[in-house]
Structures are given as C-alpha cells and as structure tokens.
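Could you help me review a protein record that somebody else here produced? Do not assume that whoever made the record got everything right. The record follows directly below this note.
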Amino acid sequence: MNPAKITIVVLDQNSGDLALLSDALSAGGYHVLPATTEAQVLRHVRQEPVNLVVKGFEAGRVDVIALMRKVRALSRDTEFVLCGRGGTIAIAVDAVHQGACDYLVKPVAPIALRGAVQKALERQALVAEDPKLRQSLKRRANPDVFVGTSAAMRAVSETLAEVATTDVPVLVTGESGTGKELVARALHDRSRRQAGPFVAINCAGLTDSLLESELFGHVRGAFTGAINDRPGAFKLAGAGTLFLDEIGDLPPKGQGDLLRILEDGVYRPVGSPESVRADVRIVAATNRDLARLANEGRFRSDLLYRLNIVELFLPPLRDRVEDIPALISSFNTHFCARHDRRPKTFTPEFLAQVALHPWPGNIRQLRNLIERLVVTVRSSTIGVEHAPPLPAMESSSAPKPLLVVSAGMTITEVESLMIRRTLEKVTSQRSEAARLLGLSRRALHYKLKALKLE
C-alpha cells in the first residue's frame, strides 16, 4: 500500500492539535488535508476520494456521529479514527458503536496514531474486497439481540425476515430499551438497500422551527443564517433507510409533512422552488400507544395507517426471561472482543438473580451491565455478588390481585374489567394486550368500542 495514494482528512478546531495530527501523518507519507470545520471536510469528500477522516474533538462537542453520517452519505467506505480529550469516553463509545474504527486519547503519540490509521486502512481494504465481510463488520458493530428461544422473539425474527427485502414501512413498537433501533438496523442490513446509508432521527428533538430543515434540508438564503445549502435527513438517507425514532413525539406539522411524502413520494427543501423525489425506506419506532394518541387527536390516524403497514412489537425483557442467558453470552463475547478482555464465566447464581430482576431498562440495561462487568471485574468468573440488587419486596407477602370479581357481576362487566386491567396493569400495547386476551387486534378494537373503553 503506497501511503502517498492514501488521502486522509484531519479535522480539529484546536489549531495546535490539528498541526500535531497532520504532521504525524504527513511524516508517514500520507496525503493529508487539514480542516477546521465540517464544511471543509464535506468539500474535500465531494472533490476527491477520501480514505480516512481523523476527527479530533473536545469534551462537550458531540457532533461526531452526525459528521460520520454526512460523510458516509457521500463516501460509503470512508473510515474514521477519533482523537478526544478528557470527558469524551461516552461519546467515543457511542461513535464506535456506530462504526468508527478506533479512539485515541489526546495527546496522541505519532506511532499510536499511525498504528490506528493502518488498522483502519486494512479494514477498509478487506471490506472493499469482500461484500460479505462488509455485512459481517456491520453486524459486529452491535451485539446480537435476536438470540434466545422465546416465542415472542422467534415471531419477531420471522416477520423481520419476511419484510426486510421489501420497501414497506415498518413500525417497531415496545418499551424503551427493548432494541428498536437494533431491529431497524437489522431491517436495513438485510434489505436491498444495505449498501445505502442508515440515517436515524430522534423525532422528540424536532421542534417546529427545526423540523423542515432537519428533515428536508434548506438552500442558501432560505432564512437568516442559512449561508450554505444543507441536506436534510431524506437526502442523507438517499437509497438507504431513514429511521424515525420516537415517532409519537413528532409535532403536528411534521406529521402532516411526513404523510405527504409517504403519499406523494416528494418533498421540497426549505427555500427551494423545486421538489425532490424521496428514495428512502421508512422505519419508525415508538414506546407509546399510537392508536390511543390517534383516538385522543394527538397523532394523525391517516399517518398511523401509512406507517403501520407492518408492526414489529418487541416484548420487554421481563417477558422473555428465558432469553437472558443467551443475551448475556452474546454481550459477553461481543464486549470481551471489543475491549480486549478474556471471556468471562457467569455463575448459575448470577443468572438466577438476573432472571428475577424487573429490568425496567430492558435489553439496554442488561447490555450496559454486562459491558461494565466485562471491563471492571478482574476475575474471570462473575458471581451473584456482581448482579444488580433485587428491588425491595412489598410489605405484605401476598401478591395483590390484578383482577377482583365480585358476586353478582355480569359477564359483560367482568369482560370490561379484564380488558381494562390488562391495558392498565400489564401492557398498554394493544397488539400485545390482544394476544394475552386471546383476541385479534381488530376484535379487541371492537370490544373497546362496544364496552365504551376507548
């Protein structure tokens, strides 16, 4: 590999660090393009093939992942090496999860920087030569959450396999932390759009003032401060997948705009006189009951029908405890490899206690626990003393009944009470409630209407 033919963009707003990083790579014979702004990086990527971006950043600046997505929308195979100062570890871990190759702590030794660059270039070369390896590396960026034997997850896997190769919109539902974004990424990786970008947008953070620009982009001069053209999420996700997380929090104006795109297939950047055809696959996710929000007038029912062509409900971890050992094994293998640790052994007592834990944070909480234990426990065996403490029990040893039937109640009253308690105490997700009650979703809807429980 001739270093002179390798183009590396070095981005750092600290002029001293920029000079040190650039000089270290130039000394290795690489073609180095320094930059102090994202706009300069994107201009370099548009003008010539860029093998690698070395991104330096400080604590409190969290634009790393956004830059990676913008660059890879233009140059799919460009690798990233991150160089950060104190307080940036969490940002770096998140960025590595999103596909960055390596993270170094400032001040960076030249030999360490050139070693990280060499590793990134080797990975790039392997991926370019082997499309199957490209997909393997994508999957290794996140541990496998589709392991286990529960009927609920088998149903999710089967449905995912059926719809992945289509372009139909998919609505992923479930509590926070159940792995909705991982399912969205799996849909993308197994689709015909796998070579395109995967762009994730958190709808809860889209205010009316930011909405149009974030989703559709804007042209120069569209409003005060618009000094350059800026692509929106639909442009960045072109030929790929657009993941709309927390779709239930999308403002009313955004709901109307999104419905129009789903119906017409076109959108217009802010300030532009011309419409652009959208070429994306939409996957949305929510932890809220959109049907209830629609009944309350807080979510457009016509948009819900468009998004919910296929629904994938992810059960909470407490409802799939039989999968916990397999999930722990998956996380153990993944994080030991990532953090260069020897695989740990988890005792039966540890597994028994975690099975009793309520896991309010679901898979995300379990994953974070295993990663922490892999990194911090020196022993090769992890026992019950490392398990999360169980919550305090109720003062009364007798469990409180969810349903109390009194003498003289009619069948209709019992049925009404059973449905209400299921939705209030067990799950607010209507698809899951219908399954537990032995009904179809449509039958449950009719009963809610007939019993005036809407």
